[in-house]
Write a structure and sequence with these properties.
7 strands; binds nicotinamide-adenine-dinucleotide; alpha/beta; seven-stranded parallel β-sheet; Rossmann fold; 7 helices
């Protein structure tokens, strides 16, 4: 059975590798035997979590490159580096994404006043950037006749955010979770289905993995309200995410394509 989950000989690309979830995906793939091309935007600092992974796995199987997901030239250069240093990409984790945390009172907007540019940036990175990365790396997979693409969605691809989670944050106007965030993720799930059907004949599987809220440095009141709303009564942790990623990346899901695997402790079941 273990062979089903082995990734020896695979080459995985992970975007947004230096953020909170990126290192979870990178470490899971390395532990399963894959080489990993970690990719992040030029200005992103190398996080402590990522440095720990570099120290543990060394440089033979782990390369870090810089490319904005909106920059085709940089992505194509990254793809060439991947082929030269590690081999043809066979797994792609489209994880880079932006949200907009509370900025405080006067920096917030009422729904009617949200600037066009704010919506545009979220859609550009989360949806159009993901599509661009898929064009560049997915093309190699189609040529090779094999691959697994995992698009990181969100529970907000399925449901609207509950703004009561944030009503303890004082400010006028009050904080609104950006409407473009859920819209960008819903689009990712739809794109996943489009690509899955188009590339199935070429041996490339495309699935979405949609996490619920992942435990981080959120304030206590937010965590209390959020957990109360989750049937399993808690937020997701790193270990909740590893198995689902490994499943979608490996032969264990050989006949699975075009799905959204929702990992949310039951949030969207209520
Ligand atoms: N953390 C959560 O609770 C949660 C829940 C559901 C879904 N998600 C999704 O998971 C993914 C990772 O989230 P996270 O919590 O690690 O976020 P994060 O902000 O910690 O990390 C995102 C990473 O993406 C990179 N990035 C941003 N813009 C980029 C660009 N233009 N080009 C290249 N890289 C860029 C950032 O530098 C960062 O390293 C996102 O797609 C997010 O929407 C997160």
């Amino acid at each position: 059975m273990r062979d089903l989950f082995r990734l020896e000989g695979e080459v995985a690309v992970v975007t947004g590798a230096l953020g909170r979830l990126g290192p979870i995906w990178v470490e899971t793939l390395l532990e399963a035997g894959s080489a990993v091309l970690a990719c992040d935007r030029p200005a992103a600092p190398v996080s402590e979590a990522f440095q720990r992974i570099q120290a543990r796995f060394g440089e033979t199987n782990l390369k870090l490159i810089r490319a904005d997901v909106r920059d085709r030239t940089a992505l194509e250069a990254g793809c060439r580096q991947c082929v030269e240093a590690l081999g043809e990409p066979s797994i792609l984790v489209n994880n880079a994404g932006i949200d907009r945390p509370p900025a405080g009172g006067e920096k917030e907007h009422r729904l009617e006043d949200i600037p066009f540019e704010q919506n545009l940036e979220i859609l550009e990175v989360n949806t159009l950037g993901l599509f661009l990365v898929t064009q560049v790396f997915g093309r190699q997979m189609v040529k090779a006749g094999r691959g697994a693409i995992i698009n990181i969605g969100s529970l907000y691809a399925s449901v609207s955010p509950d703004n009561r989670f944030y009503d303890h944050i004082r400010g006028d106007p009050p904080f609104l979770k950006p409407p473009a965030y859920g819209a960008s993720k819903a689009a990712v799930v739809n794109l996943t289905k489009y690509l899955a059907t188009l590339w199935a004949p070429y041996g490339v599987r495309v699935n979405a993995l949609s996490p619920g809220g992942v435990l981080g440095d959120q304030d206590e009141e937010f965590k209390r309200k959020f957990c109360h709303r989750v049937p399993m009564g808690r937020m997701a942790t790193a270990s909740d995410l590893r198995g689902p990623l490994l499943f979608l990346s490996s032969a264990a899901s050989a006949y699975v394509t075009g799905i959204e695997l929702i990992v949310d402790g039951g949030f969207t079941a209520w």
